[in-house]
Amino acid sequence: MRVPFFIAKRYFLFGRKINFINIVSLLSILVVAFVTMSLVVALSVFNGLENLIRSLYNTFDPQLKISAVKGKSFKVDHDFLDKLKSNKGIAIITEVIEDNVLVKYKEDQMVVKMKGVSENFLNQKRLDSMIVAGELKFHDRGKDYAIIGRGIQYNLAISLNSEINPLQVWYPKNIKAVSSLSPDKVFSRENIRAGAVFAIEKQYDDNYIFVPLDFAERLLNYGDKRTSLEIKVKDGFKVNKVRDQLRELLGEDYLVQNSDEQHASLLRAVKIEKLFMFFTISFILAVASMNIFFCLTMLAINKKRDIAILYSLGATPSMVRAIFLTEGALIAFTGAILGLVLGIGLCIAQQQFGMVSMGMETSLVDAYPVKMELSDFISTGITIIVITFLASVRPANRAIEVSIRENI
Question: Boundaries of each ABC3 transporter permease C-terminal domain copy (predicted)?
């Protein structure tokens, strides 16, 4: 065992008598433990929220989405689709027409986002596990059916079993004719029955309905234009690789995005908040490290005689400095290990029992999600090492200034 570590360990361990320095050391350990635990828990919660956001969007959004760089829509014909199908990584291409419409049911009405999708949308199986009522279908016995969000069903009091009252979907077709007394000149209108209800998350449940592509095409008079194409990638192919191939194939006039890129601003905001939280708690750790600074400073004052004896026995200043740096490391590492154990324990307990609720209604989770990542533990450890070292340097330098003649 190296001498600096041996002596630092003796100073670190409590003896028969507990003095003020021991109490400050204990408080330093507890403070480092609390801050470390806070870092682990906070970073894990942000990881969990980011993972939750991805899972919500992955349920609703496609693996790859093609849209126009300029304009609201673009032309899609057989040649264009055949061009895309030449990529071996594409399993399903779903044509999409999406726009805001007015939905009326009996006397109630609201503006929603209507998403017209081709029949193969059901083959992507993105909504299968999210259906809470009705049957997942777009056509049956020559009739069109819509898949509506749970919030829309609640707000309009829609009955899935009603054969008399269909949904009326209205879309403005002639803005110049707004002054006209005839609604038929201003709006296009189509009727459709509600066939199923999905529940994903309030943002989607209150705003979206899915309808057959030909229904949306008739109502919006889009012809062969589409607002986007949604692509499912074949198993065994990497999404980003297929994305890059499509970008090269389509050129600069089209935007090809994976799921994260479709919501880049939100995910970036979560990462920034996580980084801000990391720096905030690290600053608290830096302030808390003053306890270590004062502890080592008092130890250096209290052990002047011991240091003088070490010098007289042949100890070098670098050895004395190492003793106090090691003492600071022992305090910090003990607190860090304790904090890591407590933090991991809290995260596991939250994963298993959901002790802290999010305080909001979602169909997927009702408690704060947590996800532990090795990179967070590494960054936490590095932060503790750096801050502890900086807090220990000044007391260590003060200790080596002890005079043998004045203290023996």
Answer: 279-401
- Do residues 33 and 335 lie in contact, with contact meaning Cβ atoms separated by under 8 Å? yes
What is the pairing mode between strands 143-149 and 131-134?
Answer: unpaired
> How confident is the model over 146-167, as a mean pLDDT?
91
Cβ atoms of residues 319 and 3 within 8 Å: yes
- State the greatest distance between any 2 C-alpha atoms of the chain, in Å, as a whole number: 107
Whether the Cβ atoms of residue 207 and residue 111 lie closer than 8 Å to each other: no
One-letter amino acid at 386 equals V
Q: Is the pLDDT of residue 133 over 60?
A: yes
Q: State the Cα–Cα distance between residues 391 and 313, nearest whole angstrom.
A: 28
Hey, how many other C-beta atoms are within 10 angstroms of the C-beta on 294?
16
Could you tell me the two tokens for 185? 């000149």
To the nearest 10°, report the CA torsion of 269, 271, 274, 278: -130
pLDDT at 331 over 90: no
What is the DSSP annotation of 344-375?
Answer: HHHHHHHHHH--SB-SS--SS-SB------HH
Segments making up each domain of the chain, as ranges: 3-58+266-407, 62-259
For the cut 80, the answer to whether the pLDDT of residue 200 exceeds it is yes
Q: List, for residues 66-115, the tens digit of each pLDDT value.
A: 999 998 999 999 999 999 999 999 999 999 999 999 999 988 999 999 99
Q: Tell me the per-residue pLDDT of 5-45, one tens digit each, with 9 for 90 and over.
A: 676 676 666 555 556 667 777 888 888 899 899 999 999 99
The two three-digit tokens of residue 224, written as one number: 């062969």
- Local structure of 15: helix, strand or coil: coil
Give pTM, 2 decimals: 0.77
Task: Give the Cα separation of 75 and 370 in Å (integer).
Answer: 44
> Quick one: which of 286, 299, 353 has its CA closest to 325?
299
Name 84's Cβ contacts closer than 8 Å, sequence gap at least 6.
Answer: 66, 90, 93, 229, 231, 246, 249
The answer to whether residue 276 scores a pLDDT higher than 80 is yes
Specify the DSSP class assigned to residue 122.
Answer: G
**Which range among 97-111, 201-215, 305-319, 382-396 shows the weakest confidence by mean pLDDT?**
305-319
Phi and psi torsions of 22, nearest 5°: -60, -40
Residue 33: closest CA among 390, 360, 377, 338: 338
Spatial separation of the C-alpha atoms in residues 209 and 228, rounded to whole Å: 16
Q: Distance between CA atoms of 68 and 72, rounded to whole angstroms?
A: 7
For residue 127, give the nearest of 118, 116, 137, 141 by alpha carbon: 137
